[in-house]
Amino acid sequence: MDINALEVKKQKSIEVFCCYAHKDESLLVKLKNHLMPLQHERLITVWTDMDISAGAVRKEEIHRHLNTARVILLLVSPDFVADEDCCAVEVSQAMQRHEHGEEVRVIPIILRHVAWDGMPFAKLQALPKDGVPVTDKRWGSQDEAFRSISEEIRDVVKSLHIGSGQQGNETNTSLFDACLSSLIKSAPNWLGPFREQVSLTEPAQRMGSRSKGDDIASEGTTPGQGSDGSYPSQVSHYYIALDKDKKTVTVRLDN
User: Fold this and answer.
1) Sheet of 237-243: strands edge to edge?
2) Contact, 90 vs 66, CB < 8 A?
3) How many Cβ atoms from other residues are within 10 Å of residue 58's Cβ?
4) Is 8 within a domain?
């Protein structure tokens, strides 16, 4: 009898924080529309200060999301560089995370022409490519510029998902091992519910056989209780195997 006790959940979507000047709100909306396919694919969630709920402390919410976002977009324009909240607070916090080596991508998005070469984020690779602003006439349309930006952000997000894969697998394996350990310790107590489901053909001496890649986690015998209901008396041998690749537990009972 095989029991799939645990399954690995899909990775969570990556939070994208948008830092912008309110005079550029119309361009922000266009950018969010172009990022919507990535949200539909559950690759990202986009957060802006427009998502702050009524009654929440505005500065605290912004600070919290700036600290948790994996991607921070700086929507650069003349109004952006002139906005004290944007540059003195939000940009400063974003750059601190970047310089401290945190796993975060800070990406300047050049919306309108402005002299930004002396800004703290000037050393970072900006979008669109070559730093041509979204509103520049060299783009056939703003949609063309935003499409290019969304494609680049897709690549960034995918690289972050891949980069966090090993860490996520290690975490899942540790959790899985802990759950399995608990399962093994309580084995005699949970054999009972399977009374009606037991249908085995392999003899006890073959219980050690397993497919390649499985790790024997526990193998033992039950003392064979009578009719007290703690576990079925006809089961005299149980075996628990762990497949770390498939993240499954296999429980075998024999009589």
Assistant:
1) 215-221, 237-243, 248-254
2) yes
3) 10
4) no
Question: Could you tell me the CATH number of the domain that includes residue 58?
Answer: 3.40.50.10140
- Tokens 């959790």 identify what position? 175
User: For the chain, how far is it from start to end, CA to CA, in angstroms?
Assistant: 13
pLDDT tens, per residue, the chain with 255 residues: 333 333 333 457 999 999 999 999 999 999 999 999 999 999 999 999 999 999 999 999 999 999 999 999 999 999 999 998 888 889 999 999 999 988 899 999 999 999 999 999 999 999 998 899 999 999 999 999 999 999 999 999 999 887 665 444 444 444 445 555 555 555 545 444 443 343 333 333 333 333 333 443 444 444 444 444 444 444 445 555 555 554 455 655 554
Q: Are residues 188 and 158 in the same domain?
A: no
Bridge partners of residue 110, in order along the sequence: 76
Total count of domains within the chain: 2
Q: Is 110 helix (H, G, I), strand (E, B) or coil?
A: strand
Q: Which residue segment(s) compose the domain that 242 sits in?
A: 183-254
DSSP single-letter state for residue 197: T
